Task: structure prediction
Amino acid sequence: MNLENQIYVRKSCRNYTDEEIDMTPIHEFISNVKPLDDSIKYDYEILTNDKVNIRTRWQAPYYLALFSEKNGNYLENLGFIFQQLSLYLQSIDIGSCWVGMASLKEKRDDFVISISFGKSDKMTRDRSAFKRKSLAEISDYADEKLIPAQLAPSAINSQPWYFKHSNDGFDVYQIKQNIIKRQVLKKWNPIDVGISLAHMYVANEENFEFYKKTDFENIKGYTYTGSIKI
Ligand SMILES: Cc1cc2nc3c(=O)[nH]c(=O)nc-3n(C[C@H](O)[C@H](O)[C@H](O)COP(=O)(O)O)c2cc1C
Result:
């Protein structure tokens, strides 16, 4: 199973067939996934689309509902865990898309976000079709090591991540949005940062470590998320 290859051809899938899916490999993958912070409890359910209030113009046959206790970097943690799943799904010909615009018909207080998924033949693309900030915009200097993070999906393609070089990797920051965007993005942007870290992990599986510094640099316009060794 090569998840890294998926990073360079992935796209959010919004076109599904109704074909039934065997969920066993999905449950198995999740039971072996690496979290960003293993002290944060999370949970998920696989739902058919009749159990979900869908506010997008398209829909998928299945939705993963993601739940978490609301502690520490729980949003980054969910992004990190379930982006690994999204890459895995694509590797077995199942398309997926993070969906902020959906809620559960049966409410749960710990619900955070959902991911649509299903069989599809429209879930890969050419590298040239990615619309992304340049490497120089997402770091203190352009570095090809950051391509996996650069290509990560994010809510309304906001790409809120910033990577400052350190001795053994990067200090990771999230952009502070202006007041208008903040309302929409405050919940999603930490998930986006977690998603970009999942791509950095998948591309550097051997050495990847996430930790928090106390002596990080304050950078105007950004908040510090944590640091990675790669
Ligand atoms: C946290 C999050 C929430 C998202 N919510 C939606 C959504 O509600 N509807 C939708 O069509 N796409 C949604 N997306 C997909 C983004 O629009 C998409 O990732 C971005 O435009 C980049 O395109 P790409 O994933 O095809 O590279 C979401 C993505 C993320 C990471």
Remarks:
- Residues 177 and 183 are 9 Å apart (CA to CA).
- The pocket of flavin mononucleotide is lined by residues 11-12, 14, 56, 97-101, 153-157, 188, 191-192, 195 (CB under 6 Å).
